[in-house]
Amino acid sequence: MTSALYVKPVTSSRKILANLEKIDRRLQLIYCSNLLAKVACCTLALSAIFQVGEIIFGLENSSSMVLIFGALVFYAGLGIKRVFEKNRLRRAAGLADELADLSDEIKTAYWFIRNPVESAWMDLQLKRAANSLDEIKTREFLPFKPSKWFRGAFILIGVRVLLALLPNRAPLFATDAEPKDSFSDLENQIANLESTLERDVGEFLDESDLENLEEVLENLKGDELQNEELLKELLQAEEILNEGSFGLDAFNQEMTQLSEEVSGEELSAFANSLGRMDLTEAAQQLRELSANLSSMDPSALNELERGLDVQDSSEALSIEELLDALSEAGTALADDQMSMAEESLSEAATALDAMAENQSLGDALNDAAMNMQSLRQEVSQSDNSSSMTTDEQMEGGASGSGSDEVTKSSGGESGDGSGPAGNSTGDPSQVAELELGDATTLEVQLSLEVIDERLTQENPDPQNLFQGASQRQESDLQFYEMGGLTEYSSSSALDVETVFWQHRNLVKNYFLGIRPLRKNDNKN
Amino acid sequence: MTTKIDNQVALFCDQFHKVRTEIGKVIVGNEEVIDGTLVSLLAKGHVLLEGIPGVGKTKIVSTVADVLQLKFSRIQFTPDLMPGDVVGSDVVHETDSGEKRLAFQAGPIFTNILLADEINRATPKTQSALLEAMQERSVTVGVTTHKLDPPFFVLATQNPVEMEGTYPLPEAQLDRFFYKLRIKYPKAEHMHEIMDRTTTSVEPKATTVLDQNQILEMRKIARNVPIAPTIQDYAIRLTLATNPGNEHTHSLTDKYVRFGSSPRGTQALVVGSKVNALVNGRVHVSCKDIRSYFLPAFRHRVLLNFEGEADRIDPDEILTTIMNEIPEPQE
After folding, report:
1. pTM above 0.80, yes or no
2. For residue B309, with 0-12 CB atoms within 10 Å meaning exposed, 13-18 middle and 19 or more buried, which class applies?
3. Which among B6, B280, B306 is the nearest to A521, CB-wise?
4. What ipTM does this complex have?
């Protein structure tokens, strides 16, 4: 063919490329949506697993966001890689061939487009390929069906919503984490107590107790504290704090007594507040009373004077100040010195404010004492249960060492002498304090292993008995059904076996052994 | 120009199917053998037909000859057949004037379609007399080379049973055959049809539909079909997989094959695929075409080693495994 005759079929090539790009776009859409569905499904599944872990085991769910972000980055990465991948049109050509059953027509055409040669046959091929591609309805051949993974993703979204709607979000199996929580509680308590001690606690704890308590707290903060030492320190802290709380009880009693002694209509609200131990409110009421003093009529003032006449029997300094101030106010009212009475009432209110602050401090110490007590009990119980477990394990070892019946005794006693002693290194006094409870009995029945037939012999040889298990065998006999040598009608005349199968390997090995080796013959 | 080629392709397709239909009037079933024979004829190849006696090997060949308006000769190969009986010889010829001269008496090989019946019964010497004719399309007797009239198409048959007293074709001779086609035993429904056609007084007859020039034109057209290098690469990978000792070699080849297919096998695969593409109305070769004639083109070119023969391995098993395991180019 001369080049003058040759007219390059640009339109066919363009048509093919345009159609391939269309198919490629469709492919990208399907691929990206499928990828999105898969990534979403996997991410939601992992996220749901984390959420279930949070509900069941109390695991932290902070990694969910990291997971989702990672999945998004992964998705974006894969998507970008796919979009900017080379040879996308070649892949589209291959897919078009496959889907429309075009017998490599488009692949060949695409190759001819990329490597153009002046040939009428190739032009014809391109023309035909362009027509074939035109007939392909991309939407029919590549229908956009939502991936099944989307279904999974929606189900997982539902699961997540259900999990989020669960009313009780407390960990279901939190018992495993209790020891750790006890110790974190202890740390919290120590921190609270230290912050309380930074305030003026001289009212409740003397200097030596304060020093002791601080020392105990320092000890409790130590990492390598054994349970026994921990118990001891907690007990000491509790005792010190209880001493302080006794002072608070005495203070409360005095305040109650004062509320009963104060009388009169004008002072009834004040007395009530004192009775409820609401000292802040009581101080406020005294201030109001002081402010209203000048506007009160004489009878009311007389009544107030009588009401303020309380006995000063308290030894506590703060109570004494309050009582003094109230007495001075009463005296001033009796002398018609209103300004002095107002001043005294204000002093009494200030004393009450100071007492309210001390009261909160006392409450804090009291709470700390109670918390220390509960912590001590928890540590004591955990120590008790671990001690029990150790004992059980040791008793189990004893039963496995040959005795038919094993009785478990508490503490450091051994089984019955036949097995190793359980917990023999334990301190008896401590064990008694831990209160292990009643002893438990375990019974183990071992059955004899029977080897039949051999035992019926009069003098069984131990060697034979030992090897007896391998004497019983099973064997399979392989056989092949041999047909007639010349079954003409079965069209298998070409496959007739002249050497029986059972001899074939023998014959083959014989000839393999004697043959002369030639090129490309296997040597084994 | 493309319209002209389009017409040529359409004509090729039409003529092929006409021949196919005419042969089908006589031969029942065996479509693969008939197609393979015609493809081989149009690809300038020769065919070796293998089958047990009585399945219609000779009938297929004679029917093909009937359908094509070509000269047809038949040689029944026997152990005492001599090369001269095939190619011809110089004989003393007396002219009208009484002068005696040596004149070449052409043998039955000087034909268009040659049926070499039971070729494995002749001695290697006689078999090799066909070598030059099959490859060079010429015969040399003495010092004179005689060109054979195109198209020259050898259809040889051989019987795989009763091997006593036979001379299996040497490798060089086998390689000259474009395809080796196996005639299977007919199915039950085909047997009924065969009985109906051959046991009555009216015997079906095929009419001639193609002449010599048409066949030569079709041969020319077939060679023009373009093949993409990716498809050609697939054919080459298949070929290399049958050859031991290269990076593409299949594991079964390494175990059982002494020699794999030669490049002539790949040529047969590609040219046959081109014809097959045209037969299917296409102007490009596909992997499907390559696969269609992979077994006929390669089964006689794969020579088993001792272990392969001892294990009674059929080359078709190896080739089928190779074909299934070597992936087609996807893009």
Report:
1. no
2. middle
3. B306
4. 0.80
